[in-house]
Amino acid sequence: MSTSTVRGAKKIDVWRSLLSKSSGPLREAFRRTYGDEPSVLDHKQQKTLTVLEAFAAAFDEPAGCDAEVLVVRSCGRVNLMGMHVDHRGGFVNPVAFGDVIVIAQRRDDDRVILKNYEPERFGDRSFTIHDELPVGEKIDDWDRWTQANLERLRSEGLMGDWSNYIKSAVLYLQHIHTRDDGTFDPALRGMNLMVYGTLPVSAGLSSSSSIVVGAMQACRRINDIHMDDMATVEACRLAEWFVGTRGGGGDHAAIQFGRRDCVTHIGAFPVSVDWVPFPPEYRIVLANSLQMAEKSAGARDMFNQRVAAYVFGLLMIRKNFPQYAEHLGQLRDLNPGILGVDDAQVVRMLRSLPERARRDQILQTLDDQVELVRHTFGSHAEPADGYDIRQVCMFGVAECMRAEMAVDLLRAGDIEGFGELLNISHDGDRVTRLDHGKRVAVLNRYGDEKLDALVVDLTSGDEVRRARARLHRQPGGYNVSIEALDARCRGGPTCRRRSGRGRGGYRRGRPGRGVDRGVRTVVLRPSRARAGCPDYPASGRGVRHRDRIGSVGGFGRVIGICGFFVANSSDPIARPISATCRCKNRAYGESRQVQSLLTGTETTNVDAGKDPFARMPKQPTRSHETRSPS
Fold first, then answer.
1. 353: which of 33, 296, 390, 547 fits an S-S bond (Cβ 3.0–4.6 Å)?
2. What is the C-alpha separation between 16 and 11, in angstroms, rounded?
């Protein structure tokens, strides 16, 4: 292995010594990252040391050797508002949490050898950079090349393999450092890598993007490639297209730019970043449904079908309303403030879209955009019932507006208004609802009559009707939740007014009259709880929630297969085990802050795959529509 100096790399024995100390510069770096609690710092240092020892054993590096390694850290994220819109130019509002640790050692060749701390779950892999990229030519269109490359991954049985997220970062970094004649400039060195993470896999918490960011940072350092933070986010966004999805860069930006006790307000095209303090009297609590969001071909197809509906909808609106076309660069631009129109006009523009359309109908409608349309088709299988263009675009337009409004509400300390938006957004993802005690499917259709009624209300002059019909109050229909969370994530105490329905619906507490209604949540595993370590949400027991001071009881939102709640920190559900943790996404010493998410007071183990709410105390079986107000 190469012994050339890599910025930030240290000999393994030096790392061992530093990680064993309870003082000094590395301890200070951990303190800036995780806070002041000694037990948390000890645990984190010991875990990092354990991963380092696993690396040394896996790559046969004996004590006293001269091998130098990097220790790079990344994290996951929870997006509070701005779901499914970062790739359409919309804002996202994430907080970040968790650990992904990458131990990296420079090689003399261009081979990348991958090992995981959990080899029984994620087997050893390796690849050679020059074998993965075209020979003698530069890729002229990364989008098209990665789309075509999926067939090779399928044939090799590597679709969805964990190694693809490492490959995506390394290969894209080499791609952007390739001359037009295909010569690598520079030719990247390979790496020995060990990866460890605490994030729940396939839980919608960006465990995949955290690996992409960690691998990108390691590869940059190993090869002494300098990129600023914005360029790194953009590189990670495009790199992850290698795995087959066509998402945006919001997740990568959340990992790169997170700060302690703040929501990171991130825009796209171009990337912009701002930070909004999260109200200190509230905590965010994750609930894990234990259902994995499998990244199979079918799941990728569904994701890319929704993205395609956005693409086709915007193209159709540009064609139907040419007077606005020059202002409609992204779906986020279908906004009254940008176009200089009222909400009613935007609703009329959305009404011009088909509720649902087959591929032949889309080609006929967009006959001047055939090449782009066919290219978009190539990222996914054709949906059996066609593309739900209108309801998906309604969700996207409204969610872009909600994502901008949310930060203003947080700055103003208006958690009730924030919770109302949260629930409306949540309803746009809903797939089931409670109807007379039974779960029924939710389609979120937006027929002509429904949109005509919105226009009538918006132009009525009646302030109540106008407020109800405003665009940001329309959930739309993205429909990617799961029934387990629709059924299980319920809000706080009974109240005099509900904002939104179901799925952890937000409720405003009646002053001084809190009533138990069983906020369901998942808290830390006992081993982590005893250590005071906010590692990850696991199977666990629900915690009863009582609104004792008449403040906001709680509201919720589904993210992937996890849900989250916001609860008053004085309530038992929000009593912190470890109040905050910070996330660092580059080599130790270059820190980025994040908000801790995990809090709780009770824990119990439930076997993986079982209902994590099965041991909940029984609650009254009343629907939200029929619940007593007192």
1. 390
2. 9
Q: Which residue type occupies 590? A: E
Instruction: Please calculate the CA angle 258-426-508 and round it to the nearest 5 degrees.
Output: 90
| CA distance linking residue 579 with residue 599, whole number of Å | 8
**322 neighbors 349 (Cβ within 8 angstroms):** no
Location of structure tokens 């075509």? 148
Strand, helix or coil for residue 619: coil
> 10 Å Cβ neighbour count for 323?
7
What residues form DSSP beta bridges with 96? Answer: 77
- What pLDDT was estimated at residue 566? 64
Q: What's the pLDDT band for 215 if we cut at 50, 70, 90?
A: very high
Question: In the chain, pLDDT over 70 holds for what percent of residues?
Answer: 74
Mapped onto helix, strand or coil, the DSSP state of residue 96 is: strand
Kind and range of the H or E run holding 598: none
Q: Among the listed ranges 181-185, 533-537, 554-558, which one has the minimum average pLDDT value?
A: 533-537
For the chain, first and last CA: distance in Å?
Answer: 70
Cβ burial, residue 576 (10 Å; 0-12/13-18/19+): middle
**Residue 194 phi, psi (nearest 5):** -125, 130
621 close to 499: Cβ distance less than 8 angstroms? no
Residue 619: count of CB within 10 angstroms of its CB: 13
Rg (CA), the chain: 25
The model's pTM: 0.76
**Whether pLDDT at 65 is above 90:** no
Whether residue 81 contacts residue 25, with contact meaning beta carbons closer than 8 Å, is answered with no
Which strand (E) or helix (H) includes residue 20? none
SS3 482: coil
* β-pairing verdict for 191-197 and 111-116: parallel
Give yes or no for residue 194 having a pLDDT over 90: yes
Q: Give me the domains of the chain, ranges plus CATH numbers.
A: 10-279 (3.30.230.10), 294-478 (1.20.1440.340)
Bridging pattern class, strands 272-277 and 125-128: unpaired
Q: What is d(CA 289, CA 300) in angstroms, rounded to the nearest whole number?
A: 20
> Contact 143/175 with Cβ under 8 angstroms?
no
pLDDT at 592: 30
Q: How far is CA 106 from CA 50, 65, 114, 225, 415, in A?
A: 20, 14, 13, 14, 48
Token representation of residue 136:
């003698």
For 441, list phi and psi in degrees, rounded to 5.
-70, 145
DSSP secondary structure letters along 525-583: -HHHHHHT------S--------SSSS--BEEEEETTEEEEEEETTSGGG--SS-----
Spatial distance between the Cα atoms of 187 and 177, rounded to a whole number of angstroms: 8
What is the reported pLDDT for 564?
A: 60
- Mean pLDDT, range 209-224, rounded to an integer: 95
Q: Is the peptide bond before 186 cis (omega within 30 degrees of 0)?
A: yes
Residues 437/124, Cβ–Cβ less than 8 Å: no
pLDDT at position 589 over 90:
no
